[in-house]
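I had to read the description of the data format several times before I understood it. Each protein is reduced to its one-letter sequence and a matching series of backbone shape codes. The format is easy to grasp once an entry is in front of the reader. For illustration, here is how one protein appears when written out as sequence plus structure tokens:
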Amino acid sequence: MFAVHLRSDSLSLVQLKAARVQRCNTINFNVGSWQTALHDAMTAVPAGCQLHVVLAADFYQLVQLDKPALAAEEMLQALPWQVKDLVSIAPEDIVADYIDLPGHGGTQAKINVVVASLSWLKQLVSIISNAGGVIASIQPEEWLAGELLPVASHASMLLVHQPEQELLIQIVRDGLLYFSRRTRGFGKLHLSTEADLRSGTLDRLQLELQRSMDYFESQLKQPPVREIRLLMTAPQLMCELLTESGFNRVEPLQPLPLAAALSNAELLSCWPAVAAVCGQLKEPTV
């Protein structure tokens, strides 16, 4: 089994063999030349192999909506018209999918809708199919970060920061994604020294984390977050600073057994592709 994570300027290819990640390669390329890079990467994927495709945020848009009162078979047909005024893709070129968002109690049920360009996806599918690959799934990276955590009845917060990217904050409980947002202003977090963090960055980060926790507890009526896991450059320093600031059980993310051989740098680079294969094999634990 293979998984590929496609970004605007790089892609990561992961191979799963004997329930272990055996390959984790990242290829950089010029923005706009993803087609050539993907074609070249497919030479490492044997014909007929299943491939899970994970898209970076450059290639889709997310919208949260009240869940329409429609039968499941009607939902996907209706979604393009539900979101057409909320996204920048022409209605006739929209392809959409959704997940239910849990935890809204007696309030209106919500869904998280992913929207992408149909014409762009056709290019993607064509390149993979012509290379002999068999697409098992195409997913947005936001829906996968929680796969890096063991399934547990308590709530866990996951912070993911890749260099030059927005900070991803998610809260997962019972293996379900309850909360997800990208926070601007932290693109250079990987370059921050302890002095930089203490001079204001840490305060802003703490505020964002507390706001996210407050929403999870007050609006979604959920118990407090029990732990925070970090996937970023130099996570230990951030763990120490957040613990010093009063947050409990803050630790670097430990990869699941199938990805145990990966270094923090490899996991940070390839996590969406790793998460895609984790989701196929992960067993529930408490």
Notes: The two ends are 27 Å apart (CA to CA).
